[in-house]
Design goal:
Layout: H1 2-25, H2 27-58, E1 64-66, E2 71-74, E3 78-82, E4 84-86, E5 95-99, E6 105-107, E7 113-117, H3 122-125, E8 131-135, E9 140-144, E10 147-150
Bound molecules: calcium ion (CA).
């Protein structure tokens, strides 16, 4: 008889504590934890989404100008020098511009071809340091080379 009574009291005590205190308090902290985790995950997604939009512009790769080797010509020479520019982005079209070319020469902005007849007076200003630029409209590459014109 003593043993039965003891067991019954212990079981009732645990049951009462479990019902009145453990159950009402228990679920709340768990729900809060879940919400916090969910919020953190959503923030992450939003940020990477923003970065993705920015990257679509910043992912443009710069065209690379292939600067010609130094040139030597005589005044009066007919020149035809093709400058190349490589853009890793297949769909990008590059345009060329040049400054400081020997007089009489110009560069085709679409093809990069430098052509013309070097004027006789160019020898007086030799050597030249032409600056070439190619651009895909968002990024560009420039370089300088040397051009000697002999009289
Ligand atoms: Ca590009």
């Amino acid at each position: 008889m003593k043993t039965r009574t003891y067991v019954t009291i212990v079981v009732l005590a645990v049951f009462a504590v479990g019902c009145e205190e453990a159950i009402p308090i228990g679920p709340d902290p768990i729900e809060i934890d879940v919400e916090v985790n969910t919020t953190v995950i959503n923030d992450h997604d939003d940020h990477s989404g923003d970065k993705g939009d920015d990257d679509s512009d910043s992912q443009n790769r710069r065209p690379v100008l292939i600067i010609p080797p130094d040139q030597t010509n005589d005044a009066g020479d007919q020149v035809s020098l093709l400058v190349r520019c490589v853009d890793p982005d297949e769909d990008d079209t590059v345009t060329f511009s040049a400054s400081g070319l020997p007089r009489g020469l110009q560069q085709d902005s679409g093809t990069g071809l430098i052509s013309g007849e070097i004027t006789s007076s160019s020898a007086d200003s030799s050597p030249f340091s032409p600056s070439l630029t190619c651009s895909d409209g968002r990024a560009s590459d420039s370089d300088v080379f040397r051009w000697i014109v002999n009289a």
